[in-house]
Amino acid sequence: MKTFSILLTLLIVQSNLWAQDYYDLARAHFHDDQLDSARYYININLSKNPGAEDYFLSAMIHEAENKDLRALADYEAVIKYEPNNLEAYFQKGLIYYNSASTEQAIRDFTFVLENQQGSETKAVYYGSDPTGAKGTFLTTLQSMISRVYQYRGMAYQKLGDWDNALKDFTSAFEYDTIADCFINRSQLYSKMGNDQAAIADLKAALRIDSTNYHAWYNLAILDESTQLPLFLLNDQEFTPMLNLVGANAYESGEYGLAAKYHTKAIEANPEDDLAYLSRGKALLRTGAYGQARQDFIKALQLNPARSEAFHLIGNTLFHEKKYKDAVGFYERYLSVDRGYKNVWFNTAMAYLSMNENDKGCEYLQKADELGMGQASELMEKHCGSQ
């Protein structure tokens, strides 16, 4: 019996050693971006006697594979094992923040901030940072708390709660002073109309990191006297980065700012059809329909394959109540792509606006078939038994 007990103990110890070996292998492959191998080894542990560490690494692998729902499930499993695991709450909050579940993100970030005292944290592998850059890196608890404040500040900003956003951006400095802290707060200051404070923060960011692209781009927009460094102007990534920053501004609802970024991109490369198309979209949102239309036309001149420009031109004409002309451009787009429900719907609205209900109902029917929810409601109103 004693011999059996010793053997059982040895087997348990050996099993634990194997589990650690598989975890270490999974983590090594994850760092080398060998996700299939990382998934293979961590799944071995998950199928046996998994712990919080295993689920956390599994979640990070799922994030790298763009499987956010599975990652969320794994982070919840981590919290089940370790209810006060701040890293899991933070990572969960990041996923909710990036998926527009802003209020849930705030709740997760708040949990981290309210439970940080006396907490010990392991090194954390993050999938993204406040600037939108991708990658994995290590951090301390102090640095993590700074980033939690930054993210919660950005979440508050999304909800229009600028006072709490400003408090969080400022609180981040108590834990870490990095360029991103200044850049995030500068963008809020700019939105609040305090350009001088925004410029001061951007200059502070550049004193920390003189090569920071985002700081230079934002400073160039706010301060026309800014002379961009030669390394930036000569960098082949200059124009794509400007368009990316412009796209981020557009997604955040900052349409005027987005147009300015794309204007800078056009100045750097007047042959960039995407910059014209993107600026046109931003201008369309601001109500500058004529200017937007000129940008869409220019994009088509530079690249005739930019068929998206046809329905965007149609949108500018629709807003100007030039419904017949709008229909012409919508039809040109549909001759290339008949699967875009929004264009069928917009064409229907143009026909209805001209009191051509038969044609309008025909296009509403197609929009409805493609899954446009509003179409069925309008059909009941305008189409009767058709």
TrEMBL record:
Q: Which GO terms describe its biological process?
A: receptor-mediated virion attachment to host cell
Cite the SMART domains for this sequence: TPR
Entry keyword Zinc: no
Q: Which Pfam family is an annotated match for this chain, by its short name?
A: TPR_16
What does the entry list under GO cellular component? Answer: cell outer membrane
InterPro entries per the record? TPR-like_helical_dom_sf, TPR_rpt, Ycf3
Q: Where are the TPR repeats?
A: 146-179, 239-272, 273-306
Matches recorded under PANTHER family: TETRATRICOPEPTIDE REPEAT PROTEIN 6, UDP-N-ACETYLGLUCOSAMINE--PEPTIDE N-ACETYLGLUCOSAMINYLTRANSFERASE SPINDLY-RELATED
Q: What is this protein called?
A: Tetratricopeptide repeat-containing protein
Q: What is the lineage of its organism?
A: Bacteria, Pseudomonadati, Bacteroidota, Cytophagia, Cytophagales
